[in-house]
Design brief:
alpha/beta; 8 helices
Length: about 190
């Protein structure tokens, strides 16, 4: 693999930063040069959060420009739409079907857009959707949405599944490990 540009986009509190940490550590374990950058927009209040993770033989900058992302992992529908311009032609987007109302919608100043996934699929061909929240509930903890999504993403990256599991074991707190490994498996086998 020469280089892979991945964006993880979501809302504060969804676990995007843990997901990017796992992804970065997987790439490091494989011996790749890794650069990552995080942007927090009022993350504690449900604001937009985006992480750029680039890895390959040699990476010079962590930033990903519009049209450069090989893969975008969208934790929420509206955030997926917000960052779609960064997907390169032929790139892949994995979208969690979950909707989280932003503050303007909560206070009644705006409406949550309708048919987001359909609009994305009308304009982009390599889109996979998943109800990661439902799967996380089946695992027994809705906070494992991020690991469900990592499992789905891991399936589309040419890195051995055992490396992902090893990094999750090193990264996730021991008391939550079993449920997170189950979430990863369910995402991976989706």
């Amino acid at each position: 693999m020469e280089k892979l540009n991945i964006m993880i986009v979501g809302v504060g509190g969804q676990g995007t930063l843990l997901a990017s940490k796992v992804l970065g550590n997987v790439a490091l374990k494989m011996g790749y040069d890794v650069k990552a950058s995080e942007v927090h927009g009022m993350a504690q209040r449900g604001g937009s959060v985006v992480t750029y993770v680039k890895f390959g033989k040699k990476v010079y900058s962590p930033l990903i420009e519009k049209g450069e992302a090989d893969l975008i992992l969208g934790f929420e529908q509206l955030e997926s739409l917000r960052w779609i311009e960064y997907l390169k032609e032929g790139g892949r987007m994995l979208i969690n079907e979950q909707k989280i109302n932003p503050m303007p919608v909560i206070i009644g100043k705006a409406k949550y857009p309708e048919n987001i996934i359909e609009k994305i699929k009308d304009n982009y061909s390599n889109i996979i959707t998943i109800d990661a929240l439902k799967i996380a509930r089946e695992c027994g903890n809705i906070k494992t949405v991020n690991i469900v999504l990592l499992g789905l993403m891991a399936k589309s990256i040419d890195i051995n599944k055992d490396v992902w599991i090893e990094v999750i074991k090193e990264t996730v707190p021991q008391k939550l490990l079993e449920i997170n490994l189950k979430a990863f498996e369910m995402g991976y086998n989706y």
